[in-house]
Structures are given as structure tokens and as C-alpha cells.
Amino acid sequence: MSVVKYRAILKYRLMVPLFPVDDLCPVCRKSCLDSFGEHAIHCKELPGFKYRHDLVRDVLYDVLKRAGISAKKEAPVNFLTDPLEGRSTLRPADVLVFGCEGGKHACVDLTGVSPLVGLRDHGFVAGQAITKAETAKVAKHEKACIENKHVFVPFAFDTFGALAPDAVRFLKRVQQVVSSNTAHVKGQNFVFSRIGFAIQKR
To answer: Measured between alpha carbons, how far is 81 from 179 in angstroms, rounded to an integer?
Structure first.
């Protein structure tokens, strides 16, 4: 890692301003490239943003398969959409877990955010960004899942590696399945370890 990269990462983690003044993002040309580097981390036009989401999804899918849990990645369900835009925004479930709860399939929807979202307006509160992201996902998709006899599981994480409550509960259930299938402690702990490494990998 170069000295420049190391300094940038250290400043970001310590919440030291990276830029002297706020400016327009040169990538998406839509949002403010704030001094703390908040937008630079989660700009959806950056290749790294989508890469992290897809990597965590792929690792989660692999963890489920290794645990012996039946699942499908990028599964078309024909009802996940933006309520404000209708069927024109139909999208697949990031991971569909079969017979997850009471015989119902679960739509697991991943979302990654920067923990510094809203820092300039509200100050830093640990877990605030992922809690907000989780709530937004529930409001967007849970009703459609219930109406179609599915369970909705929002899987929100931030770029520092923190997980939202629903994601933690889901992984604990997966870990219980793993624990029932292996007597080795290392085998039992790999669920959270693999997801954590995937989230923070760049």
C-alpha cells in the first residue's frame, strides 16, 4: 500500500477531513464530494461500490451453500420493485433462501453504506447509517414480500464492517445450522468472519 493510500484510509477511519472544501463529485456529477470523503466511499457510479455489494452477496451465498442451506443467487421473484415506480423497476432478490422461515422463502436484499452518511448534518452516531439503510429497505420491499408469501430480510452493512440488527440475526441463524453440523469451533465461527472480510476487502 502506498503512503498516499495509507494516509487517505487513516484519515477516513479517524474522521479527519480529506479535502479542504466541499466540491461536486467528478464521477457522478450529482452529489457533493464532502470534505470527510463520505460520498467518495459510497458513490454509486464508482466501480468499487457495486463490486463490494456483489462480493458480499457471493460470499453470503457460498456460506449458505457450505452450511447446507438451499439458496439461489440473483433469483427472479417478479415482485421486488420500487413502490413509487411500479413494475418498471422489477429486480431479482440478491439471495433467495428456500424454506427459510415457517416454510416460506426469504428474499435477502443487501445494501452497503458509508458509516459517515449524514455526518455533516447530524454528527457521527455509531450504527446510524446502517439502521437507516435497513429501515429504508424494509419500507421498500417488506410489504410486497408478505403479500407474496415470502419473508423479507434486509442485509445492511457499512464500509467499516458493521452489520445491521436484521443481518446479525440472519447470520446467527446460519451459524446455528453450521454449529449443528460441525463440532469444530473454527467451523462455527467462519460465518461472521467470512462476511466481515468480504465487506472490508477492496
So the answer is: 35
